[in-house]
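User: As part of a screening pipeline, I want to sanity-check one entry by hand. Below is the sequence and the SMILES for magnesium ion. Please return the complex as structure tokens so I can compare it with the automated output.
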Amino acid sequence: MTDSDKKLRVCVIFGGVSGEHEISLLSARSILAALDSQKYAVFQIGITHDGVWITGDDILTALSDNQLNGCSYATLLADPTRAGIYRISTGNVVEQLELIQKVDVVFPVLHGTFGEDGSIQGLLELANVAYVGSGVVASAVGMDKGIFKDVMRANGIPVADYRLFSRRETKEDIALVIEESERLAPYPLFVKPANLGSSVGVSKCHNRAELLQGLKEAARYDRRILVEKGINAREIEVSVLGNEEPIASLPGEIIPADEFYSYDAKYHDDRSQLIIPAPLNEAQIENARELAVRTYKAIDGAGMARVDMLLEKGSGIIFVNEINTIPGFTQISMYPKLWEASGISYTELIDRLIGLAMERKAERQNTTYRYIREKGAK
Ligand SMILES: Nc1ncnc2c1ncn2[C@@H]1O[C@H](COP(=O)(O)OP(=O)(O)O)[C@@H](O)[C@H]1O
Ligand SMILES: [Mg+2]
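Assistant: Here is the complex for your manual check:
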């Protein structure tokens, strides 16, 4: 047995067909740098903007620099008896698959569409490979802001008042959509596509004209559109870690450089600040942490998630805004920073996440998938 046989084989997947492709590359760079090569044999799969899977020693750099000449096409098969990274060689007549690496655990560092929404998780379930983070349902519910809020309400967790509209409704009777939105709450109203991230397509609307514009904008990005009461709030975030018994970090606070935490405020304006820990009193801290864990459990979260909240100025009510099941993961991102402030280093966090993925897969083995009818049963 060689040394590398003893190491856990970790496959990090990054990039992806999502508006958050570039953020994923940044997260993956930090994770790859922190994975301990004494413990792990690490492999990389990159997914291009077009959804092409590629592999190689430093695919991350190749993908970041858009220098893909000479890299191999790759795939993962859904068949659990053939799980592993395959290279696809393109011949003149046929394409051939060649198993190049078996894998013990996959770390999907894919934010947003197809990565955080249960799609890739479904493939990994079929392949019966351990993977970091939430399963299919929690990922999908966490991604869809409308369903997520329904689940929150069903669990008595406060959320800002909202209404969900379809793109079709906005096309067929925009006047009615506006009327119903205005009935929800006084301006400002927030409009957002149900399934997106990074504030893409999110508008803060101060009047009817802006609402109309906001609805049109959101409808470009999704079939389902959410209109929400605007809360005059501080933005509080809590990191959650674990499977059956998740723990919550200290809360952090975002001070957006913009009127709200828009795409530019998130990624292009260095005046936006992360304050860690958030200056809150004991009761507020406990309230935020407890809400974060309840939120996580309500969607059946696993591994990790960052729960984002709105602490209303004046009333002090904490509304849960959203959950991110694959939060930004660079060294300076809120999720790992909050753990660092709570006593878990970046490297330890990654070790724990891989451990949780293995634990979850072991737990899955306790489920029987085949029903064998007992003899004599009616
Ligand atoms: N109901 C709301 N009240 C006040 N601010 C909001 C509300 N909804 C969203 N925001 C603001 O818009 C930002 C982006 O919205 P969010 O729902 O978090 O979408 P995304 O998934 O794109 O981050 C939030 O960080 C916050 O600044
Ligand atoms: Mg957000």
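Points to compare against the pipeline: The pocket of magnesium ion (ligand 2) is lined by residues 308, 322 (CB under 6 Å). The longest strand covers residues 233-242.
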